[in-house]
Structure formats: structure tokens, C-alpha cells
Amino acid sequence: MSSVVAKIVSAKVIVTCPGRNFVTLKIETDQGVYGIGDATLNGRELSVVAYLEEHVIPNLIGKDAQRIEDIWQFLYRGAYWRRGPVTMSAIAAVDTALWDIKGKIAGLPVYQLLGGRSRDGVLVYGHANGSDISHTSEEVARYKEMGYRAIRAQSGIPGVKGAYGVGRGSMYYEPADSTLPEETVWNTRSYLNYTPKLFEKLRLDHGDEIELLHDVHHRLTPLEAAQLGKSLEPYKLFWMEDSTPAENQEAFKLIRQHTTTPLAVGEIFNTIWDCKDLIQNQLIDYIRTTVVHAGGITHLRRIADLASLYQVRTGSHGATDLSPACMGAALHFDTWVPNFGIQEYMRHTPETDEVFPHDYSFADGYLKIGDTPGHGVDIDEKLAAKYPYEPKQLPIARLTDGTLWNW
Length: 407
What we know:
This protein is an alpha/beta fold. The chain has helices at 45-60, 68-77, 85-106, 110-114, 133-145, 188-206, 222-232, 251-258, 276-280, 296-308, 324-336, 350-355, 381-384; strands at 8-16, 22-29, 34-38, 122-130, 150-155, 183-186, 211-215, 239-241, 263-265, 286-287, 313-314, 343-344, 361-363, 366-368, 396-399, 404-405.
């Protein structure tokens, strides 16, 4: 019996801005089956659009959409210039769309193609952001009322302009909100003094049952990160995220030597090579690579398999800079992957949810996927066309003396 051949006959990129910019790749086959994949690179969206339209799509036409692995290798190895966020986001869009197509042809949801369920629901965490400690505690209470079992907490810091994670909105916080980058100020000493007080208050107000997370956003040196991790140990965080830039993977050795606070990193990683040493040296507890920026489901599986050898669990990025198409694919991955830890879940605006109808839903702290063939997310192209692209960039951060710092 011959295998089904689904020849790719067309592909196009759809850019829409229902509150924030999303880049979506739609691939169609000669069987009339199509799939979509997220290609959004926050603040640099059009770079991926050009890469897809000028370099990737011409190479897809005529290929068998069922040959996901071969196409992945072709786009990664065949380009010669490997890795990087633009290339890997483009590859991820193709990969996600092809898994969507394969599921539709097979009449199965993607998680079944991966090997079936490892769990009934996907534990997710939301974002409680406040202008100060009391406000953040109020936001944590609000997320608990919505049913969240895990909550990331961020607070403004007295005297620090534009502390990370504290935006003009709470439920739909979107940092990329200006044509040119907004400048924020960073003061490490104020942050290190203030943050333990935040979590002391949160434990007093909300007890020990709720899981609490915190994102440092690459702001500290390894030694400063070690100090913070140690000071947070009494409050039993689920994790401390992105405590120092991880281009130098060995930097986490120093942090690991001084604190037992669980460590998470990797949302800006693009390949397994970015996290190989961190994983195999057991310097982290959670790897945060995501479908759209790490080459799609195909490559994310390899990262997760490596991590499983060292008892490192997944904790994929899931902010609003990922479209519902990425979230749908991530949830199928999360439902299957044996060494799952948690999934970030920032809610999209109602306008975004209308543009990207999907079959996943939230209840009692978990996201659950449906059994729609493919990844269960579609795009309403007519509605998407009503929201044209708007140039937006992420903020930057400077120290109080004006030195450019990590945002």
C-alpha cells in the first residue's frame, strides 16, 4: 500500500495586528488540505516575513507535505547559514503547518501522532503584575479566583521607571507598544532588596499551596542571581526564570552552587545547541524553548528528549507574542511530552481569539485541547485583513548612569 502524497501547491504569509502583530504561514496541498503555523518574532516580524516569502516558500512548492522530517532537514541544513531567531522561526512556521496538515490527513489531533496523551490537562501559569507589592498581591488573588494554580508575580520597584513585567494593562500586557523602543531604567540593588519582600508578602497573603514563579529577565550577573536565588529560598518558588543571560551556559554553574531555588531559562533559545550544556550539566531544572522560536515541534521534541535524560522538565514560553496557532501546537506537545513541567499562558485579546478560532480551553488551572484533527487552530483571513500591521518594538533598559542593559 503506497503512502499518501500531499503535494504542496501554494503557501502564503498572513500578517495581522488584532492588538499586536502576528505572522502566520498558511500551506496548501493538492488535496485541498491546508495547515497554519506561527512565525511571529516580536519586534522583528517583517524579517521573518521576508525570509519566508523570498527564500522558504519557493522551495516548498512541489514537495510532499507528509515528509516533515525531510523538509525540516532541508530548511536547516540546506540553507548553510544555520540557527538564529529569523531562520528558526521560519522553519517552525513550516513545521507547525506540516504537522497540522498531517493530522488533518490522518484524521487525528497532533498529540496522537506524537504518541498519545501523557496527561489529561496542561498545567499553566498566568501573570500577576502590580505597581507595588500590595497591588501584585491583589493581582495574585485575582488569578487564584480565575482558577490558576500557578502564578508568575512581578512588581514595580520604588524609584525604578518601567520595571519589567509591569505594563499599562494586566490581563493583556503587551510590552511591544511603541514605534521606537521605549527606554526604561534598571537598578539592580533596588531590585535585589525589594524582590524578597514581594514573595514574603505573597506567602503571608496566599499561603504555601499556590505555585509562585518569578522572571528576572536576564538582568543580573551570575553572582547577583545566586544571591537572589538564595534570598528567595524560604518562599519555595516553582522557579526563578532567566536570571542571567545564558549565551555563556557555564555562567549557571555559579548560580547552581549557591542556591536550591529551581532555575528556568531558554525562551530566546533557537536550537538544541543553545541549551545542550545547561541540560547535560544539570544546571537548570526547566527548559523554556518554544515551538515558534526553536524550529517547531520536530526540533522541540529533540530538546525535550535530551532534557529527559537529565531530569530537566519543559516549561515553554507562552506570552502574547506567540499566536494561538503556536499555543495550540505547544499544547499538543505538552499533552504528549513525558517530562512536562508547566506551560506559560498569557491570554490573548478577544480580537485575537476571533482571528484565530481554536479548540483549547482553560479550566481549574489547566488548558485542555480538543480532538480536532491537526493542532486545532485556524485563521479567519477576512477578519485578519481588517487589522493591518503596525510597527512596534520592545523596550530597552538602561542603568541609572545611562549604560544600556538587558531588557
